[in-house]
Automatic annotation (TrEMBL):
<keyword id="KW-0812">Transmembrane</keyword>
<keyword id="KW-0472">Membrane</keyword>
<protein>
    <recommendedName>
        <fullName>LysE family translocator</fullName>
    </recommendedName>
</protein>
<keyword id="KW-1133">Transmembrane helix</keyword>
<feature type="transmembrane region" description="Helical">
    <location>
        <begin position="29"/>
        <end position="51"/>
    </location>
</feature>
<feature type="transmembrane region" description="Helical">
    <location>
        <begin position="63"/>
        <end position="80"/>
    </location>
</feature>
């Protein structure tokens, strides 16, 4: 919804639309294609987010331990100026 209501995106799409085509028919087709592509890409983005949430919930303990080890290693490197 956010990018479909963005006027800069519409100006860009209409600027690449050739002027020699029948305007009304092609604008409707272009609008349909743009909305379909946007719906598919945002749906994939949401699906990826939900899969990432499941992954993070399963492996939260491992991620916390790895993060703690990394911070500890960084502290040692600062302490000993390696």
């Amino acid at each position: 919804m956010a990018s479909s209501s963005n006027p800069k995106a519409w100006i860009f799409m209409f600027s690449i639309l050739p002027s020699f085509l029948k305007f009304q028919v092609n604008v409707n087709i272009l609008l349909l294609i743009i909305l379909l592509i946007e719906f598919c890409s945002l749906s994939l983005y949401a699906l990826g987010g939900s899969i990432f949430k499941i992954f993070m919930n399963k492996h939260l303990d491992k991620i916390n331990k790895i993060s703690a080890l990394f911070i500890f290693a960084m502290a040692l490197s600062v302490l000993y100026k390696v």
